[in-house]
Amino acid sequence: MSATRFTSSPSGLHERDRRAVRLWLYAVLLVLVTIVMVGGATRMTGSGLSITEWKPIHGVVPPLNASEWQEEFDKYRQIPQYQQINKGMALDEFKRIFWWEWAHRNLARGVGFLVAIPLIFFWVSGRLERHMKPRLIGLLALGGLQGAIGWWMVASGLVDRVSVSQYRLATHLTLACVIIMVTVYLARALAPHTQYRADRSTQRIAGILVAMVLVQIYLGGLVAGLHAGLSYNTWPLMDGAIIPGDLFAIEPAWRNLFENPKTVQFIHRMFAYALLAAALWHAIAATRSEPGTTHQRRAWLLFTAILAQAGIGIATLLAQAHIHAALLHQFVAVIVLILATAHWRGTKGAYPLPGEGRA
User: Fold this and answer.
1) Residues 172 and 281 occupy one common structural domain
2) pTM of the predicted model, to two decimals?
3) Which of 36, 83, 132, 225 is the most exposed place for a label (fewest CB within 10 A)?
């Protein structure tokens, strides 16, 4: 197939190729969301430190016999988490936490192949437009970086701690969500749009909302890493007040923003209110500037999703971060990010087919 496919093919062929690439990216997106959810379950079940080595190739194969299982278990018994929290754990109990971490790592390995192999095919067969090539290479590179950050996170819990660093956990989660955001953006860039681009203000605020959702997810990662959701389980008051005391009990003061469970939970709450208010303001503004358009409808859908997520967050807090509520909260956060990104890209209008010029 000629690499000049896009300069000589009819527009119907352009659309068919775009659809194939888009469906591939949606398949990647589905696996990415699955990885994030399995990662959340891995964290909630205390399984994330069960594999104490990073073996990108050999680690694909799990223990296959009793001696290999015992060897893996003996490695886990050397780390502080076992010695201080799980001492006396039986081998069968270890297997249960091992399989969560093994599944998480191998799903991550698998998505690398799901990106790389079709990318090579679409590239060689001339089905990729020029503007997509560096972006897809960037997506693949982000995946490689995420693997390294994943091990960097795990390593923080193997020596002096019984759990991973909240800094590294929040970074790992946020980068996973950045990868999801990029995937959605690229897929939506190839989708047909029924509406022209929105005005500059609508585009800009839609982009700001995506950034705010990512910040809120990062804050949620800090909450999870500090187990901050297990305390101050009341709403709307926190520790009996709208603004609780001792928010800056740690010196220097900046450390409270990342290491004080009370402060981190308070910031997560306050930023959720800010995000909800910004989404409502955007939906109202879009109704005024883009009445009767898909931009307006997407803005209200996004606000509704954020409102639902706020309700789920409150329920999760009141339930003291029960695993089912916490995982639902994480899942809906990812859905909100997907909707926000799709809306942001949608406000920019359709990307022109080759030879058409910018719309």
Assistant:
1) no
2) 0.92
3) 83
DSSP letter for each residue of 114-127: HHHHHHHHHHHTT-
Q: Residues 91-130: pLDDT tens digits? A: 999 999 999 999 999 999 999 999 999 999 999 999 999 9
Residue 8: predicted pLDDT: 37
Both 240 and 350 in one domain: the answer is: yes
User: Residue 5: which pLDDT band, with cuts at 50, 70 and 90?
Assistant: very low
Residues 6+ apart with CB under 8 A from 334: 33, 36, 37, 177, 180
| Pair 176, 201 in one domain | no
Query: Domain check: are 127 and 240 in the same one?
Result: no
Last residue in a domain, options 143, 172, 192: 192
What count of other Cβ atoms lies within 10 Å of the Cβ of residue 120? 10
| 159 in the same domain as 78 | yes
In this prediction, residue 13 carries a pLDDT of 61
Total number of domains constituting the chain: 2
Q: Are residues 185 and 235 in the same domain?
A: no
**Separation CA 94–CA 170 (nearest Å):** 26
The whole-angstrom separation of Cα 4 and Cα 72 is 52
Angle made by CA atoms 198, 200, 205, in degrees to the nearest 5: 90
Residues 137 and 149 in one domain: yes
Place of tokens 């205390």: 46
User: pLDDT-derived band of residue 9, with 50, 70 and 90 as boundaries?
Assistant: very low
| Whole-number Cα distances in Å, 331 to 216, 335, 338 | 14, 6, 11
For 353, other C-beta atoms within 10 Å of its C-beta total 15
What is the average per-residue pLDDT within 245-262? 96
Q: Determine the structural domain holding residue 155 and report its residue range.
A: 1-192
